[in-house]
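Hi L.,

As promised, Site-specific integrase:
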Amino acid sequence: MAQIIEQNSENHVEKSSAPSDSTAAGDDVSAVQPSADTSPMGAALPSPLPDATTALPAHLERLADRARGYVEAASSANTRKAYASDWKHFTGWCRRQGLAHMPPDPQTVGLYITACASGAATADRKPHSVMTIERRLSAITWNYVQRGTPLDRKDRHIATVLAGIRNTHAAPPRQKEAVLPEHLIAMLETLDRGTLRGLRDRAMLLVGFAGGLRRSEIVGLDCDRDQTEDGRGWIEILDKGLLVTLRGKTGWREVEIGRGSSDATCPVVAVETWIKFARVAKGPLFRRVRDQGRDVGPDRLNDREVARLVKKAALAAGIRGDLSEGERAEKFSGHSLRAGLASSAEVDERYVQKQLGHASAEMTRKYQRRRDRFRINLTKASGL
């Protein structure tokens, strides 16, 4: 195996390119992807603490820096970026309409969400979905709170308009396609086992599927406990499987990933192989492969790379060949791995619910794409 790795590493040549849905997961795109903390949007986020330039007694400056770090940790980087983008969208609309966005005015916000629903808030005249409007409203509310000027969302100019938007425009959610076991096996066959990138991508797909993990949980894993500040969990390799400890919105949870029936599809073997040949001993588990595929860097993968990997492998494997390439790319995402486990695991539903970390069985059922909806027949049970 080592000889295969070395031989392919010498001959493997890749061109670095800007990130796109067709980019291989982990290609050297870090240079063109600013992080949430360094982007203009991330820098514009308000804080309830004094700005770094505000004069503080010398003995409190370090404490203030630590407090700002805790403020950042109160929400994920993706949430902060989304909220900053939504706030920018709202304030830009206010400016174009000749309206002031400060202090908060429920009537102005009500007009804004009306414009979003009707398509008048953007140049392409495309109406926003109800989900997008609700997220924008949450972002606006959060930004006002951080500025010390709370917005009253229960005001009739907002609450009544939003209720009308929901009643008029609400539609069933568009679910991503589930990656089923036969799909996953075909996707694994498209990956080159003789390269570091191929070994890493196999491990990510198998761990993501078998653990029912979110894409942020996959890339947030460390090799062991308390190794990085930005880690969202860690792994422990045991005789019977892989124990994954994760930090979620509601606290810590453990996910058990058992060994597979064969080495070719075993997530534990895939992780062990990646660790061995990538020589990853400490820090982020899944990292960028750099230097044209010959070396593994120290940087953690961005969670968008998981979505790109799933899309690319699904397309290469020819899954849902009845659809166009564009439609297939739209159907698959990192979420497809979670949906695949929920749909294919032939066990009691409560075990699937625990694995996915859902608070209710109803949420788990939303992930199940091919469950027998009529297994319990109340019509016959009632005597008809």
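The chain has two domains: 40-169, 177-367.

Thanks again for sending the construct details.

K.
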